[in-house]
Amino acid sequence: MDITTEVRPGANRYACGEGLLQDLPSYLAGFRKISVITGEKSSNAFKKYYRKELHYPTYRYDGSSSHENAVELANKIGQAELILAIGAGRVIDTAKMTAEELNAELMVIPTLISNCAPFTPIVAVYHPNRTFKAMGFMKRAPFLTLVDSKFLLATPKDYFVAGIGDTLAKWYEIEGITRNLEEDKKSAYVRLGIASAKAIQELLLADAVPAINDLEHRKATPAFSRVTDTIIGLAGETGGFAASFGRSAGAHAIHDGLSYLESTHEQLHGMKVAYGILVQLAHTNNLDEIQKLKAFYQETGLPLKLKELNVLNTSKEALEPVINHAASTNETFNMVDPKITADQIYEAIQIVESL
């Protein structure tokens, strides 16, 4: 059995609307042993909006999104029918691993609009020191993803922008993976994944800038709701439908490599992925597409240069941890180019830096 090749669309249930959290008790009905996993900032944001007490054992993750922390939390919890994750990407991924350790269902309340972690059965696993380790594939998707669009208007702008960058990569990575795949070898689900990724790209290019403005003015407009659903829900469908043909490729490999530079540890996931899109496009010689994206990156605040990710030294020696990791055989740049080398990735970075 290879779970990574299976079609796994996403959460069992996806509920989105203004004020849905006020009905939280009804969503929790039927579960007796419930434990909450959250973080300090996530907990504070939730309490500020919800204003009611959750009378369930509550546990804090350690910030790492590591399997070690998930096992530690599972041991503390002991038994649970439901894990309620309240937070953003790393909190949610930690809760997914904890729920799997306990063979429990998972309900997710995202506190930020920043990625598809609330929706998918996939996790980004890090080492305890916060360097990237691997992608993990859970046996279960979330039982319910509860998206309160009014609550999520409190998302900091930089996280929202990062979510746009991470989600935009869905099109460029699946296109890079499948561009040389013969049509008769594209299954129905791969074709559906490609179509969903293209819809994501078109929606973001049309709605992302207005949605950022709506966020700043705390207005849950149709454009804001569409981008919210795209980042949290639709993004997960691409890899869910197309499996390995629709998941990480060059853009995420660059993100993973950048995690080995301590100066980038405070940079958001989606910002590093957005820069990775440009590197992947440079490697595949799609320079016209980079030029088309330039205005969009400038309008949204996505990074066009490494200095915007707090990487000031762009020499080959300084970037060796990045390029060596991104080009390694266990990374995903080889989904675009099976013969990718560290030298080629460095050359692509230099092209992006010079544009």
How does this structure look, described?
The chain is α/β, with parallel strands linked by helices and 355 residues long. Helices cover 48% and strands 11% of the residues. The strands form 2 sheets. A 6-stranded parallel beta sheet has the order 1-8-5-4-2-3, with helices on both faces. It has a two-stranded antiparallel ribbon with strand order 6-7. It is globular, with a radius of gyration of 20 Å. The model has no long low-confidence stretch (mean pLDDT 95).
In short:
With 355 residues, the protein is α/β, with parallel strands linked by helices.
- Rg is 20 Å
Total DSSP helices = 12
Counting helices, strands and paired strands, the structural category is alpha/beta
Mean pLDDT: 95
What sort of overall outline do the alpha carbons produce when their principal axes are compared? globular
How much helical structure, as a percent, in the residues?
A: 40-55%
Percent of residues in beta strands? 5-15%
Please tag this protein with its features.
oxidoreductase, two-stranded antiparallel ribbon, single chain, 12 helices, six-stranded parallel beta sheet, alpha/beta, 355 residues
Topology:
Elements (H helix, E strand, L loop, with lengths): L13 E4 L6 H5 L5 E5 L1 H11 L7 E3 L6 H11 L4 E6 L1 H14 L2 E6 L11 E5 L5 E6 L6 E5 L8 H22 L9 H29 L5 H21 L7 H9 L10 H15 L3 H14 L19 H7 L15 H13 L1
Parallel strand pairs: 1-8, 2-3, 2-4, 4-5, 5-8
Antiparallel strand pairs: 6-7
Helix pairs in contact: 3-4, 5-6, 5-7, 5-9, 6-7, 8-9, 8-11, 9-12, 11-12
